[in-house]
Amino acid sequence: METNYKKLDYSLKSAEEREAFVNELLPTLTKEQLKSKKYIEILADYIVSAMTPEEKKEKLILTDNRMITVNKRETSYQALVDKFENGEDGL
Which of 38, 40, 61, 69 is 20 to 30 Å apart from 31, CA to CA? Predict the structure, then answer.
């Protein structure tokens, strides 16, 4: 199965321009392209790569790398209690 993918316009520099481009592109995609997780990820990366660091912080974009950092720092009370043996109280 071969699908034709439209080339992304990297001459567009702002995230808003790229978002508009993707919005025009979406109705032309086939069902297979819309179901392709990789292709949708490429479209998202295309838009996000044009965002400024301030925009990325404002919109709280959670990339795979960011989620690894968040998950390392995030913990719950239950996770802490489960690490102790014999009913020890670590808090």
Answer: 61
